[in-house]
Amino acid sequence: MTQKRRQRPNTGRVTINDVAEHAGVSIKTVSRVLNNEPNVRPSTRARVDDAVHALDYSPNPSARGLAGTQSRTIGLIYDNPSPNYLFRAITGGLEACEAAGYSLSLQTIPPDWSDLANRVTRFVSRSRVDGLLLIPPVGDVPSVLDALEQMHLPYARVAPLDGRPGLGVSVDDLHASAQVVAHLAGLGHRRIGFISGHPDHGATRSRLEGYRLGLLRAELEYDQALVFEGFFDSDSGRRAGDYFLEMQQAPSAIFASNDEMAAGLLQVAHERNWRIPEQLSIAGFDDTPLSRTVWPPLTTVHQPIRHMALRATQLLLERIGAEDDANVGERPPRIEVFDAPLVVRGTTAAPARTQQPPFKTTAESKSL
Amino acid sequence: MTQKRRQRPNTGRVTINDVAEHAGVSIKTVSRVLNNEPNVRPSTRARVDDAVHALDYSPNPSARGLAGTQSRTIGLIYDNPSPNYLFRAITGGLEACEAAGYSLSLQTIPPDWSDLANRVTRFVSRSRVDGLLLIPPVGDVPSVLDALEQMHLPYARVAPLDGRPGLGVSVDDLHASAQVVAHLAGLGHRRIGFISGHPDHGATRSRLEGYRLGLLRAELEYDQALVFEGFFDSDSGRRAGDYFLEMQQAPSAIFASNDEMAAGLLQVAHERNWRIPEQLSIAGFDDTPLSRTVWPPLTTVHQPIRHMALRATQLLLERIGAEDDANVGERPPRIEVFDAPLVVRGTTAAPARTQQPPFKTTAESKSL
DNA sequence: AGTCATTTTGTTAGCGCTGTCATTTTGCAT
DNA sequence: ATGCAAAATGACAGCGCTAACAAAATGACT
Predict the structure, then answer these.
(1) Model pTM score
(2) A89-99 residue pLDDT tens
């Protein structure tokens, strides 16, 4: 007959008691060693460590979560249209968590954004996460942040829009954008178009401001007609392409405020047989893998998203770890700023001497 | 002074006891309702549900995990070079988990694959997952599967290579590949190149076989020289491009066994000024977002990865749920097969009348 | 009304840890 | 040796839930 014992996989059946017994100490001491608490004699610590290894013990996270005050889990709430962005963010967050012995719990939010703050609250109370990693655009919704603060749930934001105090990492969108414009202007472009991003996303405003700043520095005039409002998706880029390439006097360069839009624009340009970059320079933003798979490879701004998410998670973990320290005092909330260097690839070049529409013939766009 | 009570966020402080009291029943009855156990009078059930809502209660996962035999968490182990693939798989898995009240725990594996089975084992025992979702290539490593079976840990595989019994979902790679070849042959192509995938990945072999099957059906000869061995990354595609486009008699169509390689190939073709699809037809496999951002948009095979992962997770959850049922008897291990339809876009067309090199080669002519 | 199987509900003992506080040991100055 | 603060260790009570079992209520039959 079958023993009616243990249905569950018999992994990790070793408990703290076994370790304690093996090491000849009390379970409390084992617990101390496990949690790196002070006041354990080095020799004792070593004995416990040996026992842990000998028995291949690893603590039961449920038991820890139940007995302790933390779940050792941090949550990542997302609603981001770009798989690449998100994937890199997840990877970074996960790396930091794994290093700290935490786990990462994902949570999607519905596209309709209805009742966002409540959904977040509910996720937090269901999952009992110790903190939250917020990536755009969720990190820019004040009601969500308010709710989190009200329940004293620590969070860190990646690329936040506002100057709200709190943990976070960001990139200097403004200057990076300005740099793109400087690059284009340096190449000799005078009419530089811009495709702005999703109005709800943090980076949208600062990238637009960077564009203006760049214009200003290059002593070029800002022209409302050269700014197309997009949504960070490739379809926006296509529509922008239709708009710009139909213009009476089309810009000789277009700066799309993310890569997806730049790719969409590039498609339209190809469709219309414009030669890139000879007839039109295009720049993107983000340096997603996409920028290397389109043709020509895209000039863009590199955003170290994985690193940013990793760092944001570290800050968050530090903050959580610090909570039970004595110093409850106000520690300066940190926002770290990462470099976002310009990566010049194949889609930007000096403008053709005279700006003229493409030859526009079906076959021989590739004459020399 | 600060109250030294409760450092932790006071969300979800409501316990099963509060609910029981509010509903006027015992905690066990609440537990029954929560877990959908039978033998609860509908009126009682309703009363408990009301209390749950009134108190905005949600059970503490740690407590459940500790008391019960399951952690309500499933693990996803990954090492996949393609962010798109992975992202879709994660999304699908997460959807299924959310729907079932489970959470998804991610785990990366190091690129060096050292000691894989042990790493997986360790992850399982640390995280206490109830089951594992395995995506390529991890799902095809026998030692890992052996280890999992030995500890009786249920798993489901996405797109497994071998015929090993067990849960899984796959796509009919063989026929999808054959269909691509049929499409190409139907267009009039006689020399059709193939870029194979990473030798460790499951799909590699069946896609190659599908290619051969397609050739056979179209009464074309299999030519070893027309098969280039790649690794599913875009660099492979580039190298394949260098190889094929340098050939004495280049193929008029090339079937890359995934999109990334197709994109790499496309880049090289552009670099060399081949007109696509007029001078060279290209087909991919997977239908990643990439296939719509490259130019021209790629003809490819649509793989419903999100759906597959979702379904695999459902099967896994069913299996886990079924475990505590009476019927321990062998239930037929299921492998569900999904359709992978061909999506014809802009990179395939009938071959030019005579096969000839592009106009603008650096020097020579290659006969006509 | 009485019996008994069946359904419904309740009682209680942990699950494996951590927090609190008590106790022992140690180091060091008398 | 002796005393005493500080360091090291231990005892034990839960954390919030589920499993196993016990008890009560119900209802279909005599």
Answers:
(1) 0.82
(2) 999 999 999 99
